[in-house]
Amino acid sequence: MSSTSAASSGTFTIGGELKVNRLGYGTMQLTGPGVWGPFPDQDAGVRVLRRAVELGVTLFDTADSYGPGTAEELLREALHPYPENVVIATKAGLTRPGPGQWRSNGRPEYLRRQAESSLRRLGLERIPLFQLHRVDPSVPFEDQMGVLKELRDEGKVAHVGLSEVGVEELERARAIVPIASVQNLYNVAQRDSEDVLRYAEAHDIAFLPWFPLATGQLARPGGPLDRIAGHLNASPSQAALAWLLRRSPVMLPIPGTSSVAHLEDNVAAAALELSQDDFEALSHPFS
User: Fold this and answer.
1) Which of 7, 50, 76, 136 is the most buried (most CB within 10 A)?
2) pLDDT tens digit string along 165-221?
3) In whole angstroms, what is the distance from residue 227 CA to residue 235 CA?
4) Is 199 assigned a catalytic role?
5) Spatial distance between the Cα atoms of 138 and 129, rounded to a whole number of angstroms
6) CA–CA gap between residue 250 and residue 268 (Å, rounded)
7) Strand partners, 104
8) Model's pTM, two decimal places?
């Protein structure tokens, strides 16, 4: 059984108010197949979430579209009343016609309704971090940001974040409402959001990399991730998470899992120290 705490990953203060341990947890896998319906073993899901708290995880990322709604409900079942240091981040802006299907909906009335539904499902009076899951190209950007500002001004959400955006959208959003976080696809093998990460660093914005454990060919037998994990006596997943944590002080990985054993493996990455040579090898694997 792992004795490593997520606290070993260091801390970051989201929006200047929400202090969290940098290694968090994402709830998307605590749903049915195709991210549809409830998790088949609710008791097992509760055990995973409670074990995460025991291991020092303080940032839990979810979304209204996971299930839809069932991941938020499971979080409440497992953790409510939430420990004082736990921060719940949720998202709205994607609808679910069926398993494996995702569609953008950024209409202000929809985002408002979903925020209020998330408050009820999570058992919160205010959502600590409310993120736009995707920008809807069919709705004026200013309207989508405007309703997020209204929700913040009304006290229904404490801080606002965005997901899958570029630097230009971040700047436009920040002209309307303070942006505390950005959640883009980023991992050791996929780094198209380097410019967004640099912007986040410059403006003290939390960067939550989704799909943080995607390693691609880097984890193949004999590949750089496999080789480095081997000499550190670590798993490739641990090495990938350790690289993310070292990559930037604003990086808040949120790996998800439905297994306590895998959760403990992930959290152990918080204490894994990469040498400069190992870090550089993963930073430039094809050079």
Assistant:
1) 136
2) 999 999 999 999 999 999 999 999 899 999 999 999 999 999 999 999 877 777 788
3) 10
4) no
5) 24
6) 19
7) 94
8) 0.96
